[in-house]
Design brief:
Distance between the termini: 54 Å
Strand content: under 5%
Oligomer: single chain
Number of helices: 16
């Protein structure tokens, strides 16, 4: 059960890792957060219990550290979405940071319904707030990923279309690229290879606008893979050549001749 709930925490070696595992085991048995939060606080170098929940930056930093160390259960214990402290938090940005962290932690624990609920709540409180557009995009992307994991491709696509629409209105090429790239994955999963090719090519175009060379290469390579599946080998080879060039991989003499 421990390995399933905190797979990364059980596989990496950090200072005090044995104490963390012991604290997790105790928490699973007793559901008493005290020892778990104390151990996590010692590892992170900050008193998690005394964090100012209105400080989005501080909250985001500690949650990122906990997620990176695989302490998913620590996140869900420390930032219980149903606690009075969290509910009384009046800062939308901080609320969104906590909800996003909770959603990622729930997903890490493979608790997808809870992850979806947290993402949905984060999307709701950040919707139509230009200053929280990035948080809204992150929440919607998380929702789409959970839907995709559950093979609910219709809802996944609809959620990504919301990102696409918001990005077009805001003129945000980076998030337009993200939306098309994720829509390409959904189209591929659905067996709609033509749509997937279109989305990956558009993703590459928007990534080029924001000078993200690595992402252009990845999206171009993905388009090539879709063309290969379709049997369009000549066009696929052209996409692969472009991807290799963008990625800085030398093109072979055979490819140059062909």
């Amino acid at each position: 059960a421990l390995l399933k709930t905190a797979p990364v925490a059980a596989s990496i070696q950090l200072p005090g890792q044995q104490q963390l595992i012991a604290a997790l085991e105790q928490y699973f048995t007793s559901q008493d957060k005290t020892a778990l939060l104390q151990t996590l606080s010692e590892q992170m170098g900050v008193n998690i219990g005394s964090l100012n929940l209105q400080d989005a930056k501080a909250i985001g930093t500690i949650i990122d550290q906990m997620l990176a160390s695989g302490a998913y259960t620590g996140v869900t214990a420390a930032f219980d979405i149903n606690s009075a402290t969290i509910k009384n938090n009046k800062n939308p940005e901080s609320q969104a940071v906590i909800l996003q962290g909770l959603a990622q932690a729930y997903a890490g624990e493979q608790r997808y319904p809870q992850a979806l609920a947290a993402y949905e709540q984060a999307a709701k409180i950040t919707r139509n707030k230009p200053q929280l557009a990035a948080a809204n995009t992150a929440a919607l992307t998380g929702m789409a990923q959970v839907y995709r994991a559950g093979q609910d491709f219709t809802r996944a696509a609809a959620t990504l279309e919301e990102i696409k629409s918001n990005s077009e209105k805001a003129g945000n090429d980076a998030t337009l690229a993200l939306a098309h790239n994720e829509l390409g994955k959904i189209a591929f999963d659905s067996g709609n290879y033509d749509a997937a090719i279109g989305h990956f090519k558009q993703a590459a175009e928007y990534y080029e606008y924001v000078a993200n060379r690595a992402a252009v290469a990845a999206a171009t390579n993905a388009a090539g893979a879709m063309l290969t599946v379709k049997g369009s080998y000549a066009e696929a080879q052209n996409q692969y050549k472009q991807a290799k060039s963008l990625a800085g991989t030398p093109i072979t003499e055979e490819e140059r001749v062909n």
